[in-house]
Amino acid sequence: SAVISQKPSRDICQRGTSLTIQCQVDSQVTMMFWYRQQPGQSLTLIATANQGSEATYESGFVIDKFPISRPNLTFSTLTVSNMSPEDSSIYLCSGSNSGNTIYFGEGSWLTVV
Amino acid sequence: ELKVEQNPLFLSMQEGKNYTIYCNYSTTSDRLYWYRQDPGKSLESLFVLLSNGAVKQEGRLMASLDTKARLSTLHITAAVHDLSATYFCAVDIPGGTSYGKLTFGQGTILTVHP
């Protein structure tokens, strides 16, 4: 099994600023993904973090707002840029190899004021 | 576009009773996942269903998958208070090696009371 750690676990940010969330996996995973969970809602896929290349974004999410890096098979970052209160959410990263099990990080609780 | 729908969205159960949560999805897939989320926590993996007819059981929970009907069920037997949580089903859209790209249902908020 894989253990996924995220930093920060929680943060309160001023609107207009940017925050970078880190996701560290304790073993190599083929696929890494970033999800958003808005208050009281389900999870929505933001993008697939591709190693060494640009992330693949889902409809409604753009690179300028959510730049993602993945320099290797165990680490990825998500930046939430120019934040507004609507960005207040839980951001979760996940990792998978064969898809038999998909592991999620503990989540990063973000509040924008 | 894949859509995943759960019902019910809210479930209030008495301890000791049985109930089933349903998860319907709109596009062919043979990978379905069930997760539990407690308030203020991340997702806990419950079941991974990888083929038609798959059935898995853990304690008071049993999950099944019918890929032809595009339906999965999560059955709760003799509910206890500790099962109170939000339960999500999620469907994987296979695309080459892109396993893990999930579309989630809305979630079912389960409350078990005496």
List the helices and strands and how they pair.
The complex is a heterodimer of chains A (113) and B (114).
Chain A: E1 4-7, E2 10-13, E3 19-25, E4 31-37, E5 43-49, E6 56-57, E7 68-72, E8 75-80, E9 89-96, E10 102-104, E11 108-112
Chain B: E1 4-7, E2 10-14, E3 19-25, E4 32-37, E5 43-49, E6 55-58, E7 61-66, E8 71-76, E9 85-92, E10 102-104, E11 108-113
Parallel strand pairs in B: 2-11
Antiparallel strand pairs in B: 1-3, 3-8, 4-5, 4-9, 6-7, 7-8, 9-10, 9-11
Question: In summary, what is this structure?
Answer:
With 113 residues, chain A is mainly β. Chain A contains no helices and 11 strands. In chain A, strands 2, 4, 5, 6, 9, 10 and 11 form a 7-stranded mixed β-sheet that branches. Chain A has a 4-stranded antiparallel β-sheet with strand order 1-3-8-7, with no helix packed on it.
Walk me through what this model shows.
The complex is a heterodimer of chains A (113) and B (114). Chain A has strands at 4-7, 10-13, 19-25, 31-37, 43-49, 56-57, 68-72, 75-80, 89-96, 102-104, 108-112. The mean pLDDT of chain A is 94. Chain A has 113 residues and is mainly beta. Helix content of chain A is 0%, strand content 51%. In chain A, 37% of the residues are buried. In chain A, the strands form 2 sheets. In chain A, strands 2, 4, 5, 6, 9, 10 and 11 form a 7-stranded mixed beta sheet that branches. A 4-stranded antiparallel beta sheet of chain A has the order 1-3-8-7, with no helix packed on it. Chain A contains no helices and 11 strands. In chain A, a hairpin with a 5-residue loop joins strand 4 and strand 5. Chain A is globular, with a radius of gyration of 13 Å. Chain B is an all-beta fold and 114 residues long. In chain B, strands 2, 4, 5, 9, 10 and 11 form a 6-stranded mixed beta sheet that branches. In chain B, strands 1-3-8-7-6 form a 5-stranded antiparallel beta sheet, with no helix packed on it. In chain B, a hairpin with a 5-residue loop joins strand 4 (32-37) and strand 5 (43-49). The relative contact order of chain B is 0.33. Helices cover 0% and strands 54% of the residues of chain B. Chain B has no helices and 11 strands. The chains are: A mainly beta (113), B mainly beta (114). Chains A and B meet through strand 4, strand 5, strand 9 and strand 10 of A and strand 5, strand 9 and strand 10 of B.
